[in-house]
Amino acid sequence: MNDVIETILNHRSIRSFVDEPLCSEQIKTIVRAAQMASTSSYIQAYTIIGVKNKTTKATLAELAGNQPYVEKNGHFFLFCADLHRHEVSGKIENVNVSKSLESTEKLLVSIVDASLAAQNATLAAESMGLGICYIGGIRNNIDKVAELLKLPSYVIPLFGLAVGVPEKDTEQKPRLPFDNIYHEEEYLQDETTYINHLDEYNKTVSAYYERRTKGKRSDRWTEQMADMLKEAKRTHMKTFLQNKGFMRD
Amino acid sequence: MNDVIETILNHRSIRSFVDEPLCSEQIKTIVRAAQMASTSSYIQAYTIIGVKNKTTKATLAELAGNQPYVEKNGHFFLFCADLHRHEVSGKIENVNVSKSLESTEKLLVSIVDASLAAQNATLAAESMGLGICYIGGIRNNIDKVAELLKLPSYVIPLFGLAVGVPEKDTEQKPRLPFDNIYHEEEYLQDETTYINHLDEYNKTVSAYYERRTKGKRSDRWTEQMADMLKEAKRTHMKTFLQNKGFMRD
C-alpha cells in the first residue's frame, strides 16, 4: 500500500481540534491541491472562502446548528458552487450566458466541481497530519450564510470544511458492503441479494454501535436512514437555489 | 512535499490508454478508497458500476459523444447518485421516506457524496500509476445510459471515470489565479480586482494555448467560457431527474 491509499483509507472525521490556527503555507497548499482536481470542460465552477474571524466563525457555528467544531478549528473553509465568474465572463465577452447558467445541468456541474476540489483539499490536509470535518449544517440556514459571506448571484454555499490539528482521535465507521456499492456491468437486479447486503450491513453497524457505546446503542443502518429520512429537511433549498439563479430550467 | 500532495498536484486528465485491463485487486483498491470518503450523515448515497463488457463500453462511448477513451481504457466506472438504497431502507423499516428523497436537498447530498467518493477513487488510481478521465459526456444521453445499465428509481448516472495505464502523457492546464478561487472572510467585493484576476488569467491561458498549438490557438478563458455557455446544453436534465424521483420539491 502506498502513502496516498494509506491516507485515504485512514480517514475519519475529526470533531475536536487543538486551538492552533493553520499557517498561510498550509492554507495555500490546501487550496492549490483543491485547484488541481478535474473540472468539467475547464469551467472551475467553485470558490473557496477561508474564514478566520472569530465572530464570523461563531455565527457560522450557530447557523450550522451549534456545532462547536465550526467555531473551534484551525481554519474554516466554505466551499461554494460558483457560476458568477461565468456570468462575468459573459459580460466581458458580450455573450448572453444566462440560459445556460440557469440550467439544472450547470447546477450539477458546479456541485461536482466544488466537491472534487474539496476532496483534494481534504486529502492534502490529512496528509499534513491535520484532521477535517465536512459541515453540511451550513445549509440549515443557507440564505443567512450566503448573506453573511456576501455571496453574489450564481453562488451557493455547499458545505464547510473545518480543518485543524486533531485533539481527539475518532473511530472509523464501517462502510456499506463492497458488493452493495460496486455493481458489475449493470445495476444489481437481484433484489434478494440486495436486501441480504443490507441485512448483513445492519448487523455490522449494530455491532459497531454496541461496541462504541458499550451496549447503549445498537442502531441498524436502515433504521438510522429511515429515521433520518422520515421528514424532509432543508425544504428551502429549491427556492434558495432559484433565487440565486440556479436550476430555473 | 509529501507523496499525497505530489500525486494531487501532478494530476492531468488522460485520454489515451494502453490496452491493458485493470486487475481485480486494482478495482477493489479503487472502490475501497472511494468508500472511505466522508458521507453526509452516513447516508452513502452513491453506487459505482464497473463496466468491462466491450459492447456496453462501445455503446457508452457513442452515447457520451464518441469519445474513444470511454471505450478504450483499463476499466470504466460509472458513478451514480443513489437514493434507491434509502427507498428500500424505508420499506424495510416501514417508514415513508419519499418526501425526503424527492427534496432538492437530497439531490445535493447525493451528488456531493458521489463526487467525494470519485475523487478518492481518482487519487487511489493515480497513486498506482494509472491515469483517469472524468466523463461528463454520459449525461448527453442520460436516459439511455440509465436504461442501458438498468438503473432503478432514485438513481442517476452522474459521470464516468475512465481508468487505465496512460499511453500518452498530457500537459496540465493552468488553473484560475489563487486569489480568484480563494477569498478571505467574505466573497471578494472589489469588482475591479475580480476583473483584473480574469484579465491576468486570460493572458496565462492564451499563452498556454499558443505554446501548446504552436500559435494556432490563443483562446482567452473568458472567451472559451462564453462560447461554451452561449447555448444551454443537456436541457433534458430537470425532466430526467424528476422522472427518476429527484428534485420534485
Describe the structure.
2 copies of one chain form a homodimer. Helices cover 48% and strands 13% of the residues of chain A. In chain A, helix 2 packs across helix 7. In chain A, strands 1-2-4-3 form a 4-stranded antiparallel sheet, with helices on both faces. Chain A is globular. The first copy, chain A, contains 12 helices and 5 strands. The first copy, chain A, folds into 2 domains: 169 residues, NADH Oxidase (3-Layer(aba) Sandwich), CATH 3.40.109.10; 41 residues, no CATH class. Chain A has 249 residues and is of the alpha+beta class. The model of chain A has no long low-confidence stretch (mean pLDDT 97). The interface between A and B is large, with 118 and 118 residues. Strand 1 of chain A pairs parallel with strand 5 of chain B.
Quick summary:
Two copies of one chain form a homodimer. In chain A, about 50% of the residues lie in helices and about 15% in strands. The first copy, chain A, is of the alpha+beta class and about 250 residues long.
